[in-house]
Input
Amino acid sequence: MKLYDTAGAPNPRRVRIFLAEKGIQVPTEQVDIMSKMAKTDAFTTLNPLQRVPVLELDDGTAISESVAICRYFEEMHPEPPLMGRNAVEKAQVEMWNRRAEFGVFAPVAFAFRHSHPAMSELEVPQVREWAEANRPKVLEAFRFFDQVLSDRQFLAGEMFSIADITLLCAVDFARVPKLGIPEDHANLKRWHAEVSARQSAKA
Amino acid sequence: MKLYDTAGAPNPRRVRIFLAEKGIQVPTEQVDIMSKMAKTDAFTTLNPLQRVPVLELDDGTAISESVAICRYFEEMHPEPPLMGRNAVEKAQVEMWNRRAEFGVFAPVAFAFRHSHPAMSELEVPQVREWAEANRPKVLEAFRFFDQVLSDRQFLAGEMFSIADITLLCAVDFARVPKLGIPEDHANLKRWHAEVSARQSAKA
Output
């Protein structure tokens, strides 16, 4: 088994934190997505979309998409549960994970990819106006999650889950396009300090 | 239990097809998202993001996000399996479902929401250039899925899954911004004819 990983990229970090929370170690290979490394024939066979992360199983099966890789490990190593323990919890974790993806992760990625000069070859065309349109969407989502976190420790309730991992990676990624948590968002700041203090956040 | 649904909208259709494949009937209430109906206090309490579909359980628990609702039913009614039966299948279905979402569903939604006059109040600001940028992304994804479907009956392999439901709803939604499957995409057209012929596609 091998995990194709890119240090510093936000999506592979989701998988690294997930594995750290599970206490699972997987051999990794670094893929430099900014060079042409993701475009080699060998990597394109693993993931035709040429993106990281990718998990290659011993029989050659390749699984891409961060959450798909996490789901594989959740099924193989259920403890500690990070995607819910029963139907209602699983549905709620899925809901919060998607709200973090659509509300924060995607708008942050758009704000970055459609404005940063380093992305001009990967994101064609770069639409500046779309980058700008996403900045207030991120801030609106920060406000929403600040309210949500006023009555619970973690996004999906009292249990740390993949939804917290997604939001953590998205909030940290937001520093790149210079979108920080506003000072008056006390609940979101409390949550961010707590999840950042977990050992897994270093992964 | 009640499903808040909007006839004609592509996301609620994903849930309706999923339920039809499972043979589950759930009482529904129609929400007119184009009027202010999704903005009422009662509906906002169910889903602060004011979007459909929402599943309300008998104890008042509200689950939004189409795939989260599907996951609830998959756990409660595992047969027929639509999200995979074991770790590898579950990961692969998740991967293909996300590829259909990110590759087709999202670009189609952007092409529609950022250009259609009817969406000018729901999508602020409308970024015309972003709508245009997504049209070739949809066509590129059609090409990708046409190749994928050259060696298998369904997206995730030999078993119909939620990934097929997502792609079907996305391809049909693409008619609104006038993006059809090109004539020479024989595999994608064969797949589309097959999944459209299932009884569930009428849901």
Summary: The longest strand of chain B covers residues 2-5.
